[in-house]
Amino acid sequence: MLQTTQKTQIKVFDTFVANNKKLFHKHPAGNLTVVFLSFFILIFCSLFTPSFAEDKQSNDNSAFAYAVNALNAKSFKAKADAIKIFETINNKQTINTLKALLESRLFYRKSDQLIVITTESENGYHITDAITENKLGEVGKRDIKKIRVNNKLRKQLRGTIAQLSLSNEDTDIRLNAVSEITKILNQDTIDLLRNALEKEKNDAVNELIHLALALWDINSADKNIRLKAISLLGDSLSQEARSKLSKLLDKAEDGTFLLEDAEIRNAAKKALTHIDSQLDFYALIEKIFFGLSLGSVLLLAAIGLAITFGVMGVINMAHGELIMIGAYTTYVVQLLMPDNIALSIFVAIPAAFIVSGLFGIAIERSVIRHLYGRPLETLLATFGVSLVLQQLVRSIFSPLNRSVETPAWMSGSLEINAALSLTYNRLYIVLFSLIVFFALLLILKKTTLGLKVRAVSQNRAMAKAMGTRVEWVDALTFGLGSGIAGVAGVALSQLTNVGPNLGQAYIIDSFMVVVFGGVGNLWGTLVGAMSLGVINKFLEPWAGAVLAKILVLVLIILFIQKRPRGLFPQKGRAAEN
Amino acid sequence: MQQPNQQKGIFASILHDDRGGKIFLSVLAVVVVLVSTLNLFVPESAALHVSTYTVTLLGKYLSFALLAIALDLVWGYCGILSLGHGAFFALGGYAMGMYLMRQIGDRGVYGNAELPDFMVFLNWSELPWYWYGFDQFWFAILMVVLAPGLLAFIFGWLTFRSRVTGVYLSILTQALTFALLLAFFRNEMGFGGNNGLTDFKDILGFNLQENSTRVSLFIITALALALGYLVSRYIVTSKLGRVVVAIRDAEDRARFIGYRVEYYKLWVFVFSAILAGIAGALYVPQVGIINPGEFSPLNSIELVVWVAVGGRATLYGAVIGAILVNYSKTFLTGALPEVWLFALGGLFILVTLYLPKGIIGLIEQIKKRKSAAQS
């Protein structure tokens, strides 16, 4: 511990001296003073390390300010010297400034010679003070003048930027720099990378540098280095590695290999097959993931149905419309809080649960309760309800689709490696559906309501005799199933457009899931939804999306031949008619 | 000498005890004669003239009525609530549509004698194999019967044999028509995709736009409806029909007594599908288009409400329901398009809650009350 601190301090001291040397190299008299001064500062700071850091910061700042102003020198030679100063001040601001210079975005203001970084705007430029990073508003094209660079300077700039990025403290910047450099491999950049590798301690950056070096070494004259590079590339999944390797196996027009060395060819072939099998493996995982995310959507849509249909035995054809109401609730919540889209989801989930749940209870009390024990009539009446709800939404919100905004934290993707990345919205849907599933399972198994629901569904008369308010339980159960449908609507609103026909698209699928999984069994619904999702995604590339769906429907019809009561049939008395 | 007597005997036995049926057939006959005379022989300027548009509209209703009878046969008498009967209707329609398509010949937009327009548009070079033979009328009629019949046979054989009943069966039939809807929307299927089959010119050489053709189609539809009614009535009054009703009321008991329940169900289901297919074949030349929309689950379920409104297990009730609901649909979608779905949805709820036996049930109830009050 102590050793490392000392080491860093010595290193810091070196750079510090170096900094000031360069900063004041035009003033030899001041040089010595600075060295002494800094020495004292160093001793002082070894006692109070934090304040030392601040002090280094302020020193860096003054050096930075000096260098930035020096960039506006007349001669290119002076500019080159100024760029050299930057080499010692390694932070984001330096890199940004140099990049601005390279991309001809560094200007000075004519009125006061202030150096500014610009971005183009409609009437001129937005300018930012290069030193203080203060935004200075918009100026016209005539108010500022470009700081000119020539090709020699550009080359120097590129080298400096690369070097600075490679030794930056921020791991992300280093990673970025390495992958940037990998695109423009030449002797200079390779030397840079080799130097960086000696100092690098981060494994991820190391790996990337090794990959870049291997991409270079694969064409080396030394056979051993070549073979080593090939075997290293075989473990990588990057597109560049694959194309470099396959280039080794290129054939001339007459069918002979361009590369004569058979040993290297074989090694390359082996590495390629390894890469391909890896890629296939990750493609398989991705496909399963897609399947699971589709399965989660199905699960969310079907799980409310598993309660109303599976536990209560009520065919609710308006289930899809309850999902739709949940989606519209999300839309309305976002209209009410347009400034907090990220939070709106968390408001929308309970809101949709309550709204859809209330609709469900209303449907149960007004229609379904008169039809218990007559499933076909229930089917027809609830279908009528679904038509009314659809038209209601059409009359209130217009028949056009409404788009619900996706919060920022749900976009983007989780990159696992070069071949596999999982989008966050799918990932969240999978997680969310599982949370809803287990929450529901807990409600049914551990709460009083759940106990009563199960009692009523198993033996209605007995439950009534024991003093359960059967009608009350019916309404609450139906409300629960409907509320879950509303929550599913919130999730669906993140995936598709919200329109009056949203529910129709899912109603048949959700019935299929419940029937396939086995009526009256929540686990069956889970397994049924996930397996249907995965089967669908595996059939899709082979048969196309529509045909895959048809095939799945046919498969379910055939499956019901073998197991009319689904994957997990109910057993015991409840299974009897 | 003996044969006509026997014929008369069959008719008499079918309509014996069927007052509603007699009334229905008489009304149908009167309407058909009246409408065709008023259209053909009364000049257009006269107040009593019936426009060709009305004739075609009535023809459409009558083909729907035949479809409703088909559904009543399986739902009212056999207890199979099919939510996919629209699929059989549409298949029959497509078979007829394919014939009409081939009749266009080189009069299409692209003038290709062999290929229908949409195939030329898709750059297809030759007719797909399943379009062979549709230039012959007899083959098309054969397909009108075979396509829905075969589908119903396969589907019914698979489901009835494994004793899928009640709601499960309903949902499976809905899935069936949904799957067909998706399939027929695809251009690669070779049935015109989204747009379906349209732009028909003539049938058996008669111009479809001609007045006389329209009236003839109307009369043929009415005849088919009457015949369909009589045959269905014959089936439900036969011994087979009684077994079917027994299966509806107590399937397990019928099975235990020794009847092969699945065969009876299959028979009725296939016959009903064929009837629906014929209705579709009559519908297409009158409306002039068939597209995948006919497969949509909503159409099939609308058909269920016709039967429910009229009254199940009476056959003529289904006809009344079909005509009433379709008339109000024509009226409402024209006058108040917003209200139609509310009305249809409300109808579903009202009929199931308050009119479980439909209009016919309501009339009988009123009659009973009257006679009870009199005595």
**Alpha-beta content class of chain B:** mainly alpha
Biggest interface reads: A-B, 41 and 41 residues
Query: Percent range for helical residues of chain A?
Result: 55-70%
Classify the fold: give the CATH topology of one domain in chain A.
ABC transporter involved in vitamin B12 uptake, BtuC
Number of domains of chain B: 1
Task: Supply the number of helical segments of chain A.
Answer: 22
Radius of gyration of chain A: 34 Å
Describe, in short, the structure shown.
The complex is a heterodimer of chains A (about 575) and B (about 375). Chain A is mainly alpha-helical and about 575 residues long.
Notes on the structure:
The complex is a heterodimer of chains A (577) and B (375). Chain A is mostly helical and 577 residues long. Among the domains of chain A are: 170-260, no CATH class; 282-409 and 423-569, ABC transporter involved in vitamin B12 uptake, BtuC (Orthogonal Bundle), CATH 1.10.3470. Helix content of chain A is 70%, strand content 6%. In chain A, helix 11 (239-248) runs antiparallel to helix 12 (262-311). Chain A is elongated. Chain B has one domain. Chain B has 15 helices and four strands. In chain B, the strands form two sheets. In chain B, strands 1-4 form a two-stranded antiparallel ribbon. Chain B has a two-stranded antiparallel ribbon with strand order 2-3. In chain B, strand 2 and strand 3 (206-207) form a beta hairpin. Chain B starts with a helix and ends with a helix. The interface between A and B is large, with 41 and 41 residues.
